[in-house]
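Batch manifest line 353
LIGAND: AFP
JOB: complex structure
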Amino acid sequence: MVEAYQPSDAANVLDRDCTTLSRHVLQQLQSFGPEAQDLSALMNRIALAGKLVARRLTRAGLLEAALGFTGETNVQGEEVKRMDIYANDVFISVFKQSGLVCRLASEEMDQPYYIPENCPVGRYTLLYDPIDGSGNVDINLNVGSIFAIRRQKGEDLDQSASDLMSPGRDQLAAGYILYGPSTVLVYSIGRGVHAFTLDPSLGEFILSQENIQMPSHGSNYSVNEGNFWQWEESYRDFIRYVHRHEGYSARYSGALVGDFHRILMQGGVFLYPGTLKNPDGKLRLLYESAPLAYLMEQAGGKASTGQQPILDVVPSKLHQRTPLVIGSAEDVELVESFIQERQREQTTVAPNR
Ligand code: AFP
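JOB STATUS: finished
ARTIFACT:
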């Protein structure tokens, strides 16, 4: 009788050592149904974009025309870097042939980019910031990409993308890729927050941390204190508080993804308040603040405009900005308490004095 083949231990190597991203998504959803397959494929495509961007970043100093500015300004009025355009086009390119996504909207594009051949088959929209913190690119410091996936509602035949004007709680998935000493992809599909590290020898993102839960308080506070006199008094109150109390450390890199990652891993709070010049701050709701808020809530933290949860904000335009206070629950609540205190003072001041 011929004996059935008995696999060796090596046959379990994938389960033991190498949970890949697409496999993880399917495990999370405990399904091989069409939506689970879609989400798994979407994450795979995002990972591919991340690998392409990471590859260019690691060699940027050796390549011609990889660093520096293009000479253009984007819809936000900011000078565009060559790497911004490269990364923006990489995301378009990997989704063009995917059949998954009908629209992509990013910081670098005035209007969403439509892929008509994927509509109505591809019923998803990808919102993304291709290179967040691009000021760091030319000096070889960490940068990131931020993304969110939303289900497209309706046909969007007039290409108005009006269905995107809905709160962040409508996101199906969100995450970021941090291009640091290693390339790390962090994502959530509403079932916890998970981190994957790119193994360059395999060319794959491999699960490195599952179900990240952040501490309810941390010592880090991350804010551009150069704007101190541009903020409302309540934010200055918070900064005075941390200056006067032991146990706080300032950490700010100028790239949101890196600063957020530190807070997610170690606890603390990141703030980008409104300023005199930009009362809504600098960060964009749909493809920066809302995706990170989604992750933060999944990890047990909080994300707020100072007045309300970020995930409850209904945008009125694609490139809307919002103040952001995000991090450990107690630290976000502390910042909010200074805001509420100042509001109380204002309402109790006699109107005719
Ligand atoms: P860029 O992507 O235009 O470089 O902006 C980076 C960013 O949006 C975010 O990543 C940083 O947290 C924030 O701006 C830094 O802004 P300041 O330079 O005003 O502190």
